Amino acid sequence: MKITVETNVNAAPGKVWDAWNAPEDIKQWNSAHESWHTTRSEVDLREGGTFVSRMEARDGSAGFDFGGTYTRVVPGQVIEYRMSDGREVTVEFVESSGGVLVRETFDAETDNPPEMQRQGWQAILDNFGRYVEAKG
After folding, report:
1. What is the biggest distance separating any 2 CA atoms in the chain, rounded to whole angstroms?
2. How confident is the model over 82-98, as pLDDT tens digits?
3. What is the pLDDT of residues 36-52, one digit of tens each?
4. Between the chain's N and C termini, which has fewer beta carbons within 10 Å?
C-alpha cells in the first residue's frame, strides 16, 4: 500500500530544495511533534548516496535512526530513495503559482495503521513548509 502526503510551500524553488536536503535545515524541521527533534543529520545527495537522521524524544525516552539510499535524484524536481527496511519513497517538487508543491509517496509499513502513518508523515511535511516559509 502506498500513502501520499503533500503541502504547498510559499517559497522559491531553490530555497525549498535546499531546506529539504541541508543537514542543518533538516535538524530544524524534521519532527512530527514538538516533543521530538532531530539531533543529527547526514546527507550524501546522489544516486547511490545515503542519508540518516537521528530522531529522538526530547525527554530522552526514545530514539531511532531514519535512513536509506538514494535511488534517483533529479535536482529541483524528484528524489527517490529506499529506506533501510526496503520500503520506497518518492518526493516530488512541483513549481506552482503559489510556490512549490512538495508531494511524498511512500510504501506503508505493517506495524502501524495506515492513517497513523499518513498523519505522522503529513505532520513532518507541514513542519517543513512552516520552517521554509518562516526562514524567508
Report:
1. 43
2. 999 999 999 999 998 88
3. 999 999 999 999 999 99
4. C
Helices (H), the chain: 13-21, 23-29, 114-135
Q: Do 58 and 37 form a contact (C-beta atoms < 8 A)?
A: yes
CA dihedral (44, 45, 49, 52) positive or negative: positive
Rounded to two decimals, what is the model's pTM?
Answer: 0.94
DSSP, res 105? E
Strand partners, 69: 50, 82
Domain around 33:
2-135
CA distances from 34 to 11, 58, 75, 123, 132 (A): 23, 8, 30, 10, 17
CATH label of the domain that carries residue 130: 3.30.530.20
* Nearest-angstrom CA–CA distance, 95 and 99: 6
Which set of grid coordinates corresponds to residue 110? 505493517
Measured distance CA(114)–CA(135) in Å, rounded: 32
Q: What strands lie across the sheet with 99-107, from one edge to the other? A: 2-9, 99-107, 88-96, 78-83, 63-74, 50-57, 36-43
In the block, residue with C-alpha cell 492513517? 115
